């Protein structure tokens, strides 16, 4: 097959100027459509699979005008890499390039080029120089390469469509090169003769084939060399088909090296149908090994693979070309036309590459898969089409239905229009009917109104007539009635005048009678006042006498106290002495023990010491006895003092006004600067007999008067001696008397009141007396007298009005005992707080009109003090009664009713009984009757009032003007008590 036949399958662009030789060939046949499609399909398939495995490369021609220094440098590098300066793969003389003659190639693995392959022509006389070009054909020249590129660059560009003149191209090319091509019978191609050997972008190796060696075979004298960059691995199995790639990978213009008398066609001449055969290369092994890393000789051959693929491939005839004859190549070219691989297409000068069968196979397989997929897709498409058809038919049906509905809707619209017009007509008719009706109604109304007016006129006239008749009749009756009333009034006024006259007379009589009475009372009062004055003077004298006595007693007491102190000092001394003696006794005993054994003197000394000790003990006993006597004496004297003070004492306390209380009474304290004993109260305004307003100031004297600023501590100081008397074995009774709200409970039971303070004092005194041999047992009980019944305030609150408390008296022992009551042993002062708390809970408190917090019962705190002196054998039994009396206000004032009235009556009764008892005690002779039994309170306190006891009454005074009358009453009562002289108290002792 000649060249023209080879190229007939490929189109060329019209107007493209072909190389000289090709122009002579018959024009190429247009490519059939089927083939074009197939080619495209194959290209696409390859594109889809990614870059082909065949490495890409480019042939680079060393420019001849390389500067000398660079050429030298390259030479040095090549030598270092183990290459001869002119590395050649020389074909053996027997090897023929022409007609598929075997040409051995040795892979050179010393210089991998990344991403490119180059085919260089190195002048044998010069050092090899590599020029790199990228795979897209942009030539990157080094140094002087640019100068020589002028000759071949024009070719390169024309390969990509630039119109370059042949003359320019030819002018750039050395004439020898053209002549050589012509000699070889190669078809001359226009533009660049790109010669590309595809390589793997990575790890390239340079295969160099000496043009000279190839030429030598054909007796062509040439010192040029091809340089092929291929991957090391691929290089070892290099085959010719790898050295040719697709057109897109033919970007580099082959640049001539050396004399530039060589072009790409020369390479094709040498390699195009080249089959490298290992056996044939054996003879040149030594030469090849020099330029390769592996030393293997690649078998470069074009192999055809029968395939159903439509991808163009090398023509079998060419691939199956007979091996070249071993006849050495003569310098003259053979007459037989040389077989070249066909061009890839008409746009390129690239030869059709030999195809990789395995790749083709894989492509085929993929193609098959692809076909299968397409088949599947087609079947799917068909089914989808069916579905679409189905939907289309359904759509048509729906559209038909829609059209039906539209028609129906149009009909309905028409009907609706008709109905609307009918409705408007009916409405108009209705409106006209309504109007005619309203006219009729108006007529009827007018008619009715006229009738009503007529009727009203008629009625008015009738009523006018009847009213006039009535008025005439009423006038007559009224006149009669008035006359009758006048008569009656006359009679009544007469009666009234008579009655007034009579009453006036009576009133006059009454007034004169009252005046007489008043005068009498005033006279009596004046005489009483005189008597009282006299009495007061007597009392004062008595008091002065008593004061003198008291001073004497006090002096005596002071003396006794001094004596007592001295005795106590002696006692202490004696005790110390005693202790010293004890110590010395011990020492002596030891000494005796020591001395007893052998010394009579020691014995006598011991006796002496013993005697002295006995004496000391006796002295101590004496001192103790004296102390006890002193204590007894103290008690006696203390009692005498109390007796001198009076067995019944009265003290007055005026409470302060609260912030809410605005109208205070006029209360004065004349002797406030000394021991306050007097209180003066301005009485209410009175009209005298002469008709003038007078106010009297009432003065009251008591054992002690406490003003509003006084504190509970101050008050207690005055009564502490009485508490001591209770501890000494006397019955003591302390009352708080006064109207509701005057401060009784505050004085008696508040946290620092008399009860807690008395208990605390008793407890501490009892503790103190313990060292003098006294042991005290203290028992407290708290009872209430309410409505003349006893209640236990320390019992359970639910038993308050149910449990009957009995009071028993022992007339022999003069002792009172309570039954069914809880008594608490006072083993510490803290216990009294519990007692008070429990009692206040249980105590009946109810509101009255006089005071919302009025206490309506008498509460009695009874503290029994039983003492025993273990040394003297003395025993004492005293009782301290602390009594918070119920409010003393008068019945009229409290405005009590019902149950409250009964309570108040009972309270008043018991208080008046108390007054009676005190009065009887003061006035009666010994043994006469004392009305204790008249009330529950006096019965309970029987042995605490009277001769055997000491009594203290606090009269509590409210500072308010509103309570003035009550205050005066209370003070009068207290004065009465204060004036009572009760017989000498007797101590309850048991010898
Ligand atoms: N000396 C005082 N100092 C301060 N406040 C006092 C004094 N005396 C009484 N009060 C207060 O006056 C008010 C009435 O006192 P209290 O309840 O003691 O009167 P009362 O005579 O005991 O009344 P009742 O008979 O109703 O028990 C209380 O709020 C009390 O705190």
From TrEMBL:
Residue spans making up a coiled coil are 606-647
This protein is called what?
A: Kinesin-like protein
Keyword ATP-binding on this protein?
yes
Q: Which CDD domains match?
A: KISc_C_terminal
Give GO terms: molecular function aspect only.
ATP binding; microtubule binding; minus-end-directed microtubule motor activity
UniProt keyword annotation of Cytoplasm present: yes
Location in the cell: Cytoplasm, Cytoskeleton
Could you tell me which PANTHER family the record lists for this protein? KINESIN-LIKE PROTEIN KLP-3, PROTEIN CLARET SEGREGATIONAL
Family (UniProt): Belongs to the TRAFAC class myosin-kinesin ATPase superfamily. Kinesin family. KIN-14 subfamily.
């Amino acid at each position: 097959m000649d060249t023209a036949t080879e190229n007939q399958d490929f189109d060329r662009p019209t107007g493209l100027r072909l190389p000289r030789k090709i122009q002579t060939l018959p024009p190429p046949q247009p490519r059939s459509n089927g083939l074009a499609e197939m080619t495209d399909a194959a290209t696409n398939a390859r594109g889809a699979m990614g870059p082909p495995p065949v490495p890409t490369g480019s042939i680079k021609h060393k420019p001849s005008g390389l500067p000398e220094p660079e050429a030298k440098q390259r030479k040095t590098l090549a030598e270092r890499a183990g290459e001869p300066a002119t590395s050649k793969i020389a074909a053996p003389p027997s090897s023929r390039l022409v007609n598929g003659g075997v040409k051995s190639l040795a892979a050179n693995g010393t210089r991998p080029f990344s991403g490119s392959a180059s085919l260089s022509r190195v002048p044998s006389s010069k050092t090899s120089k590599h020029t790199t070009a990228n795979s897209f054909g942009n030539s990157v020249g080094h140094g002087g390469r640019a100068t020589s590129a002028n000759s071949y660059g024009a070719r390169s560009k024309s390969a990509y469509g630039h119109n370059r003149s042949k003359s320019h191209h030819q002018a750039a090319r050395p004439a020898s090169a053209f002549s050589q091509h012509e000699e070889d019978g190669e078809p001359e191609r226009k533009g660049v003769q790109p010669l590309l050997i595809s390589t793997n972008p990575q790890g390239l190796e340079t295969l160099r084939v000496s043009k000279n060696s190839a030429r030598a075979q054909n007796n062509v004298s040439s010192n040029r060399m091809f340089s092929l960059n291929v991957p090391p691995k691929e290089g070892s199995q290099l085959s010719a088909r790898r050295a040719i790639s697709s057109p897109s990978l033919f970007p580099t213009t082959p640049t001539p090296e050396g004399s530039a008398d060589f072009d790409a066609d020369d390479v094709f001449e040498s390699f195009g149908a080249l089959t490298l055969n290992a056996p044939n290369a054996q003879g040149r092994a030594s030469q090849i090994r020099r330029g390769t890393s592996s030393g293997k000789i690649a078998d470069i051959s074009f192999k055809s693979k029968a395939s159903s693929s439509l991808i163009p491939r090398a023509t079998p005839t060419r691939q199956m070309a007979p091996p070249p004859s071993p006849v050495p190549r003569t310098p003259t070219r053979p007459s037989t036309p040389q077989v070249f691989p066909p061009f890839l297409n008409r746009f390129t000068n690239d030869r059709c590459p030999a195809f990789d069968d395995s790749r083709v196979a894989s492509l085929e397989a993929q193609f098959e898969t692809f076909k299968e997929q397409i088949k599947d897709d087609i079947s799917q498409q068909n089914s989808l089409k069916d579905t679409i058809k189905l939907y289309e038919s359904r759509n048509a049906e729906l559209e038909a239905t829609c059209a039906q509905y539209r028609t129906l809707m149009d009909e309905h619209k028409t009907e609706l229009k008709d109905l609307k017009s009918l409705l408007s007509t009916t409405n108009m008719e209705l409106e006209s009917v309504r109007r005619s009706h309203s006219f009729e109604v108006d007529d009827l109304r007018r008619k009715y109104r006229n009738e009503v007016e007529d009727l009203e006129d008629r009625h008015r006239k009738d009523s006018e007539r009847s009213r006039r008749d009535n008025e005439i009749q009423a006038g007559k009756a009224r006149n009669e009635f008035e006359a009758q009333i006048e008569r009656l009034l006359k009679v009544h006024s007469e009666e009234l005048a008579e009655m007034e006259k009579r009453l006036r007379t009576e009133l006059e009589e009454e007034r004169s009678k009252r005046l007489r009475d008043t005068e009498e009372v005033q006279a009596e009062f004046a005489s009483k006042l005189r008597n009282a004055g006299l009495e007061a003077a007597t009392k004062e004298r008595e008091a002065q006498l008593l004061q003198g006595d008291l001073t004497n007693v006090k002096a005596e007491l002071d003396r006794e106290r001094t004596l007592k102190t001295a005795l106590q000092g002696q006692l202490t001394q004696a005790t110390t002495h005693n202790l010293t003696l004890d110590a010395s006794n011990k020492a002596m005993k030891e000494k005796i023990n020591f001395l007893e054994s052998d010394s009579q003197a020691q014995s006598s000394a011991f006796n002496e010491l013993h005697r002295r000790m006995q004496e000391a003990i006796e002295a101590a006993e004496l001192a103790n006895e004296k102390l006890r006597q002193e204590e007894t004496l103290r008690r006696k004297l203390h009692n005498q003092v109390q007796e001198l003070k009076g067995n019944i004492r009265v003290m007055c306390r005026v409470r302060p006004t609260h912030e809410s209380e605005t109208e205070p009474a006029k209360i004065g304290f004349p002797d406030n600067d000394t021991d306050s004993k007097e209180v003066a109260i301005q009485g209410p305004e009175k009209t005298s007999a002469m008709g003038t307003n007078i106010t009297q100031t009432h003065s009251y004297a008591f054992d002690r008067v406490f003003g509003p600023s006084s504190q509970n501590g101050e008050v207690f100081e005055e009564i502490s001696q009485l508490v001591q008397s209770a501890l000494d074995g006397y019955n003591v009774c302390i009352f708080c008397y006064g109207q509701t709200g005057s401060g009784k409970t505050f004085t008696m039971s508040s946290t620092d009141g008399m009860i807690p303070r008395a208990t605390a004092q008793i407890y501490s005194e009892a503790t103190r007396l313990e060292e003098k041999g006294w042991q005290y047992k203290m028992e407290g009980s708290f009872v209430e007298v309410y409505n003349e019944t006893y209640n236990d305030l320390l019992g359970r609150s639910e038993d308050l009005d149910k449990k009957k408390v009995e009071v028993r008296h022992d007339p022999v022992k003069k002792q009172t005992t309570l039954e069914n009551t809880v008594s608490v042993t006072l083993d510490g002062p803290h216990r009294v707080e519990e007692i008070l708390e429990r009692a206040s809970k249980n105590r009946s408190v109810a509101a009255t009109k006089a005071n919302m917090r009025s206490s309506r019962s008498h509460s009695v705190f009874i503290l029994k003090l039983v003492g025993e002196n273990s040394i003297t054998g003395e025993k004492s039994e005293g009782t301290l009664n602390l009594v918070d009396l119920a409010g003393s206000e008068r019945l009229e004032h409290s405005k009590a009713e019902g149950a409250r009235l009964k309570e108040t009556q009972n309270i008043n009764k018991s208080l008046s009984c108390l007054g009676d008892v005190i009065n009887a005690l003061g006035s009666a002779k010994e043994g006469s009757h004392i009305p204790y039994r008249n009330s529950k309170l006096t019965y309970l306190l029987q042995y605490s009032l009277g001769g055997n006891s000491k009594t203290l009454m606090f009269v509590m005074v409210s500072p308010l003007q509103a309570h003035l009358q009550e205050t005066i009453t209370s003070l009068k009562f207290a004065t009465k008590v204060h004036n009572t002289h009760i017989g000498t108290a007797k101590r309850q002792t048991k010898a």
